[in-house]
Design a protein that fits this description.
The chain is α/β, with parallel strands linked by helices. Among the domains are: about 120 residues, Rossmann fold (3-Layer(aba) Sandwich), CATH 3.40.50.720; about 220 residues, Rossmann fold (3-Layer(aba) Sandwich). The chain contains 15 helices and 22 strands. A nine-stranded mixed sheet has the order 10-9-8-11-12-13-18-22-21, with helices on both faces. The two termini are about 45 Å apart. The relative contact order is 0.09.
Length: about 500
């Protein structure tokens, strides 16, 4: 968001976060001028904090302010519920604030420490879904203090959020691993800027460009980096894209994970946390099948001196390529908003909440165990689209039309979080459940990966199998019976 050199800023919330940010704005002198705090606390209203007046109650005074189009509201109440945020947004919008920023949730604010650099433009995802669980992140990350931590897929939605939160964990080094140069560059620069602005602790940040499918390289780099803990988020994950490129999805998601597991064991990595998805449950897509196999590989390897575990959850709000950014682009161009089916629903949680729970599970999880994040109730995609249309100031179905395009190959109308032979049970940690299930059949896994290898990689004497899509699906179906082989599936 562009900002004038001396924009006037109203900070919503005169608590520790708002006061901290106001002090930073004043100290720097170029971010703008804080003209008032707005708060509902009777004990604060009418006072001045560091010379800045506290006005309130918010809904009563917000329309009395003498504003200019450049004026900005900054919501600095990181403990706000979704209901409170929605009410604040309605009040500020009705008062014609066109610039509204927000400080993220408490999962990113450690020990009363809040910085202007952590604020961002208010987004529809801030108002959607349930209230995120509050986690003492500093306490949850004690197992990472002084450790070397590697995040695969560090430039992705979950990987980058894990990296941000890991700044506060006291790790000795953060290895940002990925095969996308630009995405790794972006998260590397972002973390360094956050550190410059006083966010987190002084971990050494090391960007690493590499390919998990290259087994020799993965063996080499893990021996060199000596990572104590690995968070494995890297995957090809877009269902329609992986349906069009099934061999690449299996090569990356299955064999990339295999390479990482073998290299981590050889390098003496103490702990590996694999990020999974609800699409592994009775998979209908190659993506879901590939992640199910990867899940089983991790659980089969998770024995001995290595703590290898799986954390499974559903969709996250606002991830790259997900429906939130897609709906936003469609609304910005005037519609239509495309919906697969009026009855389609998905489980959602915010990216920061998912990352916080993954980090907590990584510290308390036991080897060879599958953990499930409690996703709450599924959200209807139609309702989600309507809420987004209203957020941007339009009338759903009238000013912005909806277009129903039908389910695409590999997609389901609804998702489930466990299979019939998986039994979730509560743990002592809110929203983290342990799943009781049979241990994967390592012999069957070995046979499967042996059969898949010549399809993904050229092998002498097996050239006819290389990149054969139909053979790939038929081979996967021997292990994943729910995966269909379309009658029109091409050979290549």
């Amino acid at each position: 968001m562009e900002r004038t050199r001396k924009s006037r800023i109203y900070i919503i919330g005169a608590g520790f976060a708002g006061v901290s940010i106001a002090g930073e704005i004043r100290a720097k002198g170029i971010l703008g001028e804080v003209v008032a705090f707005l708060d509902d606390d009777p004990a604060k209203i009418g006072r001045k904090i560091d010379g800045i007046p506290v006005l309130g109650p918010i809904k009563d005074v917000v329309n009395l302010l003498e504003k200019t189009p450049a004026d900005e509201a900054l919501i600095a109440i990181p403990s706000s519920t979704r209901e409170k945020l929605r009410a604040l947004y309605d009040v500020l919008e009705q008062a014609h604030f066109t610039r509204i920023r927000i400080l993220p949730g408490l999962s990113q604010i450690i020990s009363g420490d809040a910085h202007f650099i952590q604020t961002r433009e208010l987004d529809p995802q801030d108002l959607l879904g349930r209230n995120p669980v509050r986690i003492n992140l500093r306490e949850s990350l004690t197992y990472l203090r002084g450790r070397r931590v590697l995040i695969t897929g560090a430039g992705g939605s979950i990987g980058s959020e894990l990296s941000r939160q890991l700044l506060s964990g006291g790790a000795e080094r953060l290895y940002l691993f990925g095969h996308g140069e630009n995405s790794i560059y972006e998260i590397d620069r972002e973390l360094r800027i956050l550190q410059e602005e006083g966010v987190g602790e002084r971990a050494t940040i090391v960007p690493v460009i590499g390919e998990l499918q290259d087994r020799d390289y993965v063996d080499f780099i893990l021996r060199r980096l000596k990572a104590d803990v690995i968070f494995h988020t890297a995957a090809y994950k877009h269902v329609p894209m992986t349906e069009e490129n099934p061999v690449g999805a299996v090569a990356n998601n299955v064999f990339g994970t295999m390479n990482l597991l073998h290299a981590a064991e050889a390098a003496g990595t103490q702990r590996l946390v694999f990020i999974s998805t609800d699409k592994v449950v009775n998979p209908a897509s190659v993506y879901g099948a590939s992640k199910r196999i990867a899940e089983d590989l991790v659980l089969a390897h998770g024995r001995g001196r290595n703590d290898f575990m799986v954390v499974r959850f559903g969709n996250v709000l606002g991830s790259r390529g997900s429906i939130i950014p897609l709906f936003r682009r469609q609304i910005m161009k005037g519609g239509p908003v495309t919906i697969t089916d009026a009855g389609a629903s998905r489980y959602f949680m915010t990216i920061p909440e998912a990352a916080s729970l993954v980090l907590q599970a990584g510290g308390v999880g036991k080897t060879g165990t599958l953990y499930l994040l409690d996703m709450g109730e599924p959200l209807c995609i139609q309702d989600l689209a309507e809420q987004m249309v209203r957020f941007y100031g339009y009338e759903p179905g009238k000013e912005i039309k909806f277009q129903y395009i039908g389910l695409r190959p590999g997609e389901k109308l609804t998702e489930t979080l466990t299979t019939g032979d998986e039994q979730p049970e509560d743990t002592e940690y809110p929203r983290i459940r342990r799943v009781v299930r049979a241990r994967p059949d390592k012999h069957a896994l070995d046979n499967l990966t042996t059969a898949l290898a010549p399809i993904c990689y050229l092998r002498g004497g097996q050239e006819a199998a290389y990149r054969n899509r139909r053979l790939l699906r038929e081979t996967l179906q021997t292990y994943i019976p729910t995966l269909m082989v379309p009658g029109d599936e091409p050979t290549y």
